[in-house]
Design a protein that fits this description.
The complex is a heterodimer of chains A (337) and B (687).
Chain A lengths: L1 H27 L4 E7 L5 H12 L4 E7 L5 H13 L3 E5 L1 H8 L16 E4 L20 E5 L4 H11 L4 E6 L4 H16 L3 E6 L13 H10 L4 E4 L3 H5 L1 H10 L4 E3 L13 E4 L2 H16 L11 E2 L4 E4 L1 H7 L12 E2 L1
Parallel strand pairs in A: 1-2, 1-3, 3-4, 4-5, 5-11, 6-7, 6-8, 8-9, 9-10, 12-13
Antiparallel strand pairs in A: 10-12
Helix pairs in contact in A: 2-10, 7-9
Chain B lengths: L3 H61 L11 H11 L3 E8 L2 E7 L9 E5 L8 E7 L1 H52 L14 H30 L6 H17 L25 H12 L5 H6 L10 H30 L1 H21 L3 H28 L6 H30 L1 H22 L19 H8 L2 H32 L4 H33 L4 H17 L8 H28 L1 H7 L1 H55 L6 H6 L1
Antiparallel strand pairs in B: 1-2, 1-4, 3-4
Helix pairs in contact in B: 1-3, 3-11, 4-5, 6-10, 6-11, 6-12, 8-10, 8-19, 9-10, 9-12, 10-11, 11-12, 11-15, 14-15, 14-16, 14-17, 14-19, 15-17, 16-17, 16-19, 18-19
Classes of the chains: A alpha/beta (337), B mainly alpha (687).
């Protein structure tokens, strides 16, 4: 009895002590942090998760929000602004803003980019393929972040769980580095996992930029070639055309599988996907920001990581329109929308 | 005063009574459990199957929320198949619509209503959809059999353990009673001097007796002294009365004695063979038991550990802990004899128990193969030290008359532990896991340590002793022994193959095979127990048989016994080529038990015959030391050979290859020893 009381007292005093230490830490860190945040298509759930996490951890942060509205030219202006404002941290959403602000690691003229301020990216599918860092373990740059695409093997397995296939179709923008990398890894897995890959790329104009010309024909060509699924990778241009692509696939009764959550939350009739939750990605990026700002860890010592859990999302309305219902066992772990 | 035989008879009666009571209560428990099991198991299994059915029905019910018609559900058969795979007790799962089966996976063996549960699917009430789950009566029967076998094992182990307990309790009791009896008998004979006293039982009584005896003796001395002083003053007093007094005193001394005239006859109470191990018995048994607990699952445990940087296959990894243990035992024992004698039996045993305790506890925590190997080596060292200490204890506490009985008790306790340990260890491993069972071994050695510390007699300073028993198998002795080609052949053709096949089969291949065939560690433990029980029953029988043959035909049947025994051991392996499933290892163990019991004692006897010259020069124990060491190296080689063959060619071939190898050894052995008798041998027979 006495012993228990004693232990309770100890526990109580330990709690009080740690609370006091935490309070002190907060007081010490009472300084305000400035984060310069660049988005590509306006604020998303990722930014909400990022802000909420830092707020819950008791950090006082002044955000400087900039939205590029998908215009690469604006990013150079932001670089100049960052250099004059000198924030504590730079946050970027997606591959184009991250490349525009930080530049490729092997850029000939690094002065055009930000090098001396720590940068955290989110929603970059393949930081290595995009040349943001030479390798995930390379510690050269003051850059860290959260990638958002599940391992390709896991995505293929999810597709098979829904509906087995022998032929897989893919439509991508050959002008994007990470899309080319995605196609390459699909080709590799087609050999080892013994399925056939059918490819189509967006038409490009004389400058090499992708255009929306003939999207329906390309989807039809995939269906014609016997594709049983249409894979929608983490492709920036594809995302701008997602509604047309998905509608074309639906019209042809070709089921669609997406690697990103954004594609499943829109009016586009995309059937399913194995995706990282955007809000959770933001929280994880917030955790990395806290490590850099409060704990003083250098960005190159904070690992570039992805989430440990992905959500299997099925849109039942699309499934019914396609008349391709998910197997009953999927009700166990998929999120039906 | 009753004779010592009376006490012994009483003890055996008491033991018999205890055993009968224990066995009867086990039988009653088994019977009652079996009945309770019988009536409650089927409903329980059905309840478990119902839970699985409920989760299926809940899952399908979710589809109703999206207005999917029950006929359009996708992947129901896959879902049922996956669930059936997860639940071996389920024979069939059906999706029913209005009582009609629309999807069915598996086949119901028996459509009896009490084996089937029907669960309506919420959301599809309109379609009158139900899930029907039927359980497999065969699975229930299998559960029964497993349980019954476990109970048999528990009964056998309980029998032996209670016997050990009786020895443990009665050992002290009987020793005390014996001392009291000796004291009483001495007094009855008229001896009045201090005698050895019991430790606990009747201590007060004995002390009081002792006090009286000393008082009487003192009074006698006082009377004698006063008489002497009066004798000196005899001219003052009349001498006649003194003479009468002296005569009376002489008469008294005839009838009574007042000083201990016996010389060196203090060793008493060691006559009972079963009690020869005395205070060493319980701690030694616990220490052995702790080690034997892991026999049935150690290979599986090791193969589950990360091998780290070592480029080893899983099978090799599984064999290494046994190899490490056996190698340490083989190589350390020749060196330990002298050391154990020098530092004392008590101290070396306590050291071994402490080391074993740490080794078991750390083994249970090991996170990599390398760690496990280190702790198993430590365990092997501890085992070897304890073995030598206990053997030395027997030798120290017995004389030429009681030594054989003492050593028999020593070997007996090793066999008892080998009966109890692996079987109970297998059941425990299936129940509480490998690590917990290893930790339990640590706890047992902890108890052994405590008992040894409390009960083992303090070490006497080493006397002149330095007998041959302690001489290590030095290199020179090894070379002298190996210079005898017949000895070398006895070792390489009989001793080593016998051990290789025993350890490779019983400790390595059979446990792995049984688990590979889908059975449990408990089954592996039962197999090892079967072998040990056969040893206990057959070895003395075979030894008697050899002795009888020797007496009747005046020849030496040892070589024939060894050859036949080896051949039977080898043929045992061929049983694995038969497609009998789990019956095959059973036949292997049965034949191996017969083979080994045929060859073990004759083989040891042959050493004396083959190495007569060497024994004359080096002494019996040096030659037997070499023999035991080489034999134990065979123990270490067994799992390695087994693992290599398993890696190359799979279970069946590994069993058969080792068996064939041993049969070949037996054939060559019989050519050398049976058909061409030794030149030394012939004149001996002629005598």
């Amino acid at each position: 009895m006495m012993r228990r009381k004693f232990l309770q007292q100890i526990a109580g005093s330990v709690a009080a002590l740690s609370a006091a230490v935490a309070e002190q830490a907060r007081a010490q860190d009472g300084k305000r942090f400035r984060i310069y945040a660049v988005t590509w298509r306006g604020k998303t759930q990722v930014e909400s998760g990022f802000e909420d996490f830092l707020g819950k951890r008791g950090l006082t942060v002044d955000f400087i929000w900039r939205d590029a509205e998908q215009k690469v030219a604006r990013l150079a202006e932001y670089v100049r602004e960052i250099k004059t404002l000198k924030p504590d941290l730079v946050y970027t959403w997606g591959t184009p803003p991250t490349l525009g602000i930080a530049g490729p690691f092997d850029a000939p003229d690094s002065s055009q980019y930000i090098n001396d301020i720590p940068l955290i990216f989110a929603v970059v599918a393949a930081p290595v393929a995009a040349r943001i860092v030479p390798a995930l373990t390379d510690r050269r740059r003051e850059i860290t972040g959260v990638t958002h695409v599940a391992a390709m093997e896991a995505q293929l397995e999810a597709m098979r769980t829904y509906r087995p296939f022998a032929r897989l179709g893919v439509l991508y923008n050959a002008a994007e580095l990470n899309s080319k990398a995605t196609a390459e890894s699909l080709r590799r897995l087609a050999v080892t996992q013994k399925f056939e890959l059918v490819e189509q790329t967006f038409t490009r104009d004389e400058k090499g930029a992708a255009t929306a010309t003939g999207i329906e024909e390309k989807v039809a060509a995939l269906k014609q070639a016997g594709a049983e699924w249409l894979y929608l990778g983490p492709d920036s241009y594809l995302f701008t055309q997602i509604e047309r692509v998905a509608a074309a696939a639906l019209a042809l009764r070709l089921p669609t599988f997406s690697a990103t959550e954004a594609a499943l939350g829109l009016r586009a009739p995309v059937l399913t996907g194995l995706v990282a939750n955007y809000y959770t990605i933001g929280q994880f990026a917030g955790h990395k920001a806290e490590q850099i700002l409060v704990k003083g860890i250098r960005a190159h010592d904070v690992p570039i990581e992805t989430l440990s859990r992905y959500s299997f999302i099925v849109r039942m309305d699309v499934a019914k329109q396609l008349d391709i219902l998910p197997p009953v066992s999927l009700f166990n772990y998929a999120i039906m929308r | 005063m009753k004779s010592p035989g009376f006490l012994k008879r009483q003890l055996w009666l008491a033991i018999a009574a205890v055993l009968i009571i224990v066995m009867a209560s086990i039988a009653a428990t088994v019977g009652l459990m079996y009945r309770a099991f019988d009536s409650s198991i089927a409903p329980q299994v059905l309840e478990k199957a119902k839970t699985a059915g409920r989760s299926l029905s809940g899952l399908i019910g979710q589809a109703a929320a999206y207005d999917i018609p029950i006929d359009e559900l996708v992947g129901v058969d896959d879902l049922f198949a996956a669930s059936r795979k997860k639940h071996p007790e389920i024979a069939q799962i059906e999706l029913l619509r209005a009582g009609q089966s629309t999807v069915a996976v598996g086949t119901a063996v028996d459509a009896a209503a009490h084996l089937t549960a029907r669960l309506p699917i919420a959301g599809y009430e309109g379609a009158r959809a139900e899930i029907a789950v039927s359980i497999n009566p065969g699975y229930v029967r299998k559960l029964f059999q497993e349980m019954a076998l476990d109970l048999v094992v528990v009964a056998v182990v309980t029998l032996f353990v209670s016997l050990e307990l009786v020895y443990f309790l009665a050992g002290a009791l009987v020793a005390d009673l014996g001392t009291l009896r000796a004291q009483g008998a001495a007094m009855a004979r008229g001896a009045f001097f201090p005698m050895p006293q019991p430790n606990w039982l009747g201590l007060e009584w004995s002390t009081a007796l002792d006090k009286r005896a000393i008082e009487i003796s003192q009074r006698y001395q006082a009377a004698l002294a006063s008489l002497r002083s009066r004798w000196q003053d005899r001219h003052h007093i009349g001498a006649t009365s003194l003479r009468t007094s002296f005569a009376a005193l002489r008469e008294t001394r005839k009838r009574f004695s007042f000083a201990d005239a016996r010389q060196g006859s203090r060793i008493d109470g060691n006559r009972n063979a079963a009690l020869a191990l005395g205070a060493m018995r319980a701690p030694f048994f616990l220490l052995l038991l702790a080690d034997d607990l892991s026999r049935s699952f150690l290979p599986m445990f090791a193969s589950g550990l990360p091998a780290g940087p070592l480029p080893l296959s899983t099978n090799m990894v599984a064999s290494l802990p046994i190899v490490a243990f056996m190698l340490v035992v083989a190589l350390s024992q020749p060196l330990l004899g002298a050391w154990s004698e020098r530092i004392g039996r008590r101290r070396s045993f306590i050291g071994a128990a402490a080391l074993a305790c740490a080794a078991h506890l750390l083994s249970s925590q090991s996170g990599s193969l390398l760690e496990l190997l280190v702790w198993r080596c430590a365990g092997g060292g501890a085992w070897a030290i304890a073995f030598v200490a206990a053997q030395g204890y027997v030798l120290d506490h017995t004389d030429t008359k009681t030594r054989t009985a003492g050593l028999a008790a020593f070997v007996g306790i090793i066999m008892v532990s080998l009966i109890c340990g692996p079987s109970i260890g297998g059941i425990l491993a299936d129940g509480v896991g490998h690590r917990a069972t290893l930790a339990l071994g640590g706890a047992l050695t902890g108890v052994a340590l405590f008992l040894a510390w409390r009960r083992l007699p303090l070490d006497q300073p080493p006397a002149i002793v330095t007998t041959q028993s302690s001489s290590p198998a030095s290199a020179s002795k090894l070379s002298i022994a190996f210079a005898n080609p017949r000895f070398l052949m006895l070792l390489l053709l009989a001793a080593v193959p016998a051990k290789v096949i025993l350890i490779a089969y019983c400790y390595y291949l059979i446990p792995l095979y049984i688990v590979d065939a889908g059975s449990t560690s408990a089954m592996a433990g039962r197999m090892i127990m079967l072998y040990s029980v056969m040893m206990v029953l057959l070895v003395p029988m075979m030894a008697n048989w050899v002795a009888a043959l020797r007496a009747r035909y005046a020849n030496e049947p040892e070589a024939l016994f060894v050859a036949v025994g080896l051949a039977v051991s080898g043929v045992a392996g061929l049983a694995m080529a038969l497609p009998f499933g789990l019956l095959s290892p059973f036949i292997v163990v049965l034949l191996l038990g017969i083979g080994q019991s045929l060859s073990i004692s004759p083989q040891a006897a042959m050493v004396a015959e083959v190495c007569k010259e060497e024994i004359r020069v080096l002494g019996t124990s040096a030659v037997y030391g070499v023999y035991r060491m080489v034999e134990r190296l065979g123990n270490a080689a067994g799992p390695l050979i087994g693992a290599a063959l398993l890696e190359l060619a799979g279970f069946r071939t590994a069993f058969v290859a080792i068996g064939v190898g041993v049969v070949v050894c037996a054939a060559v052995f019989s050519i050398v020893f049976v058909f061409k008798p030794t030149p030394r041998h012939v004149p001996r027979v002629a005598q």
